[in-house]
Design brief:
Elements: H1 7-22, H2 27-34, H3 38-46, H4 53-62, H5 68-81, H6 90-95, E1 96-103, H7 114-124, H8 130-143, E2 154-160, H9 173-188, E3 193-197, E4 211-216, E5 222-227, E6 230-234, H10 237-253, H11 257-269
Parallel strand pairs: 1-2, 2-3
Antiparallel strand pairs: 1-4, 4-5, 5-6
Helix pairs in contact: 1-3, 1-5, 2-3, 4-5, 7-8, 9-11
């Protein structure tokens, strides 16, 4: 009988394989060091078996991962235990030299106002408690510290024109107006570089949903794709390249930066 593969554990398994390959070890070699049968370790790498806590530190030692495996396992446990999560990957954002993001539905989290973020969480999680919403908003605002970093990473955002008109949280135009002003302020200050895909574009290469591309100084690039209650890492080379291609096509269909800022400025001025 086939085991169901959890995407989160499959991603963790790819990390195990990455560290093992760097050491030129076979699965059976690692299994022997771990004191388990080969099929047991193989299931860890494919994501069909969860790694029990008692094996984590030993895995880190055998694969000479310098704490990375234990750290990723801990993150995975926190994600699994928290049903009201958006895996926004602040650890990746803190290390990027370039961040590219496409959002077809909402303003990207890095430039959201607290009120907009709260309204968005209330829409996403109907019935959420105030305490839970407070924690999510606080975490989102903490992520925005990246905008003040020196040197600041290059942050490129592409959003659809519909984002500028989409109300959230049952709130009126006032909340949306403040969010537009915040978006314009960050773009004019050069903290983010923003392009808007017009609603009448003949092609829309973003129908697959929101995604991000992360570039680092000394690590391979990765992507992440957003879904309703979380996010999945994409580190497969072919799938990552598909995201890069789509982002480039979206930029080609979008207004230039100056025209994009002008569009938002007109909405702000005419509100």
């Amino acid at each position: 009988m086939n085991r169901r593969v959890d995407p989160k554990w499959r991603t963790f398994g790819r990390q195990l394989r990455h560290h093992r390959n760097q050491l030129s070890l076979r699965q059976v070699d690692v299994a022997r060091e771990m004191g388990v049968v080969g099929s047991y370790y193989s299931a860890w790498e494919t994501g069909t078996r969860h790694v029990d806590e008692k094996y984590v530190n030993k895995l880190d030692e055998v694969l000479k991962a310098a704490g990375r495996i234990a750290e990723e396992w801990g993150k995975l446990q926190r994600q699994t235990q928290n049903p009201l999560r958006f895996a926004e990957l602040p650890d990746l954002e803190a290390a990027v030299t370039q961040l590219r993001e496409f959002q077809p539905l909402v303003v990207p989290g890095l430039v959201q106002t607290p009120d907009y973020a709260r309204a968005l969480f209330e829409d996403t999680f109907p019935g959420i408690t105030k305490a839970s919403a407070d924690r999510l908003v606080e975490a989102r605002m903490e992520r925005q510290e990246i905008l003040g970093k020196e040197p600041r990473p290059l942050i490129l955002m592409v959003i659809t024109e519909a984002v500028l008109h989409q109300r959230v949280g049952g709130c009126g135009n006032g909340l949306l107006h403040e969010q537009r002003r915040r978006l314009l302020r960050e773009a004019e200050a050069g903290r983010v570089r923003l392009q808007i895909v017009p609603h009448d574009t003949p092609h829309h290469y973003g129908n697959g949903g929101a995604f991000r591309l992360y570039t680092f100084a000394d690590e391979p690039p990765v992507a992440s794709a957003e879904y309703m209650t979380g996010e999945v890492i994409i580190n497969d080379t072919d799938r990552y390249q598909e995201c890069v291609t789509n982002f480039g096509l979206l930029q080609g269909e979008a207004y230039p930066e100056a025209r994009s800022r002008q569009l938002i400025r007109e909405l702000v001025d005419n509100a």
